[in-house]
Backbone:
């Protein structure tokens, strides 16, 4: 699932505006701690990009933050398609509705066509031929819809079939499995083939060195804004390492379609001895690991 739709009926949103870390509205800015992209839409809708993340978890955290900041009765829909997430949020039966993967069309079918926001003339045209629900429209052939209802009718036909072609977020390329240890390619090189000191052209560069397997660590956290972040860590059999600077989290997750299900929060940290390390928290297991370091 990729889309999380937050609906607050009286929320003042401007269609198409994008919120960054300098956003003027407290709630959308706070939501940037949940996901990397937040877009405000019309009719009290705020979109949260869950692409490549654990969408169910993002939905829960979005609802929690919305309740804290909005002072209203927010509702959240989570689905693989934007239209299913939007209908789930606005017309669902609970404050948080998650549409299971692969059933977006089935989910939409019993809802009245009004949820697709047809123009009054088109709504009248639908009613005249006995089309009442999304499933009624979805079952028709595209050619028939084009002939009877034109471009607008065809656009809604696509939506009724959960074929949502709106571009709500900019495209973000995500590898099939974003976990670093699954994207690392190991090469064996003879010492004689290694570049001599000073042989690299241009300015020196730090390269992330990923361990073959992430190392389990113990982490002590401190509060920063709305979350707990690592303050120091310890490898088994060693003393604590203090963290002077902590950047993150960066959210990464996989599901059954891309591999073993996982959800991680990555932090780039500068230690008190000047080493730049990459730590992550396994959200599902609530465990911390050292992924690697820069050298």
Residues:
């Amino acid at each position: 699932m990729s889309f999380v739709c937050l609906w607050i009926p009286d929320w003042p949103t401007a269609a198409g505006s994008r919120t960054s870390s300098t956003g003027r509205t407290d709630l959308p800015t706070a939501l940037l701690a949940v996901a990397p992209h937040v877009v405000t839409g019309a009719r009290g809708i705020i979109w949260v990009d869950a692409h490549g993340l654990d969408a169910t978890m993002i939905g829960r955290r979005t609802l929690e933050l919305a309740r804290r900041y909005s002072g209203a009765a927010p509702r959240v829909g989570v689905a693989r398609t934007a239209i299913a997430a939007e209908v789930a949020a606005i017309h669902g039966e609970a404050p948080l509705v998650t549409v299971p993967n692969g059933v977006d069309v089935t989910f939409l079918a019993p809802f009245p066509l009004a949820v697709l926001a047809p123009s009054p003339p088109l709504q009248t045209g639908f009613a005249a031929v006995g089309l009442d629900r999304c499933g009624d429209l979805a079952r028709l052939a595209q050619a028939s819809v084009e002939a009877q209802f034109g471009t607008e009718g065809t656009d809604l036909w696509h939506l009724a079939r959960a074929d949502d072609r709106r571009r709500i977020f900019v495209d973000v390329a995500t590898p099939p499995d974003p976990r670093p240890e699954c994207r690392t390619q190991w090469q064996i090189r003879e010492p004689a083939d290694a570049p001599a000191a000073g042989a690299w052209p241009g300015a020196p560069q730090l390269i992330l060195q990923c361990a073959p397997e992430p190392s389990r660590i113990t982490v002590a956290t401190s509060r920063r804004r709305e979350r707990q972040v690592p303050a120091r860590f310890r490898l088994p059999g060693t003393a604590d390492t203090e963290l002077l600077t902590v950047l993150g989290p960066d959210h990464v997750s996989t599901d059954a379609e891309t591999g073993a299900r996982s959800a991680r929060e990555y932090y780039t940290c500068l230690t008190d001895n000047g080493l730049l390390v990459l730590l992550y928290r396994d959200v599902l297991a609530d465990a911390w690991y050292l992924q690697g370091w820069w050298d």
Observations:
- The chain has eight helices and twelve strands.
